Amino acid sequence: MAEQLPGVALLAVPVVVGALAVLAGSADAVLSARAAGRPVRAAVTAPLREGARLLVQQPRRVPGADLLLVRAGLLTLVAAAGLAALVVPVGGRAVSDSSIGLVWFNAADVAVWVAFWSIGWGSNSSWGLVGGYRFLAQALAYELPHMFALVAVATAAGSLRLSDVVAAQQGLWFGVWMPVAFAAYLLAVLGLSAWGPFGRPVGPEVAGGLGVELAGVDRGLLHAGRGALLAVGAAMAVPLFLGGGAGPWLPPALWWLVKTLVVLGVLVGLGRLGPAVRVERFTEQAWLWWVPATLLQALVVAVVVL
What residue intervals traverse the membrane (predicted)? Predict the structure, then answer.
């Protein structure tokens, strides 16, 4: 079992997740500026300047919009990322080393579905509603491969506790002998955060989709929630597939940070490799290829363990 972090560590969770989210936003802004030939230096602080601008911007009021539903969805988005972060072991220590850590993480993912749909439905905008339904279709496509990837990890470790998952990788990281599950997990992280090629629910071709009627703090919460989900997904990849804080010379917590930053960089880079994926195309490919591939991966793991 992992050593339990003191209760005061709860206060550090939003700080660490927020810092990683800002870092991801900065890296994305830098890559975008380089591609457009704009100065890179200004892009480094773009997320912070955008956050400050949204804090003082007046919120937008749409007649007939369900403001309570929209804000409940926005807060759920941020809360889901925070709750998922509680079970991430950092160098052998976690805020909560729950015996059902993997299930807890996946439950937070499902809460994201409710959050995105609530934002789209409550906005009383056709574009927002299209964005919400696009996310649901996208989520249905990535969720099964994601679950089979987690099943493969739990089967190999013989436990749903994340400290046991890390301990089971002492000889060989799961990411090495479960490449399909690892790839499916990374795609799912991009999907659940509506990031990069899976950003069509908030894409410009639907006038901003879920965020079309959001302004001020509300829009800031949408950006913060998506960034936090990407950051927590990257942090969780380390105990699931990269041996947790295992590594020579450096303290385990520092190894966890290094690996998290590498995964976060890969996710941001993947988001810039190609155009946005059409939801119907992704759904077709997921059912034809990703579901069978991850199911086969889980079966191979089960045979090896037996």
Answer: 68-88, 100-119, 139-160, 172-195, 224-242, 254-274, 286-305
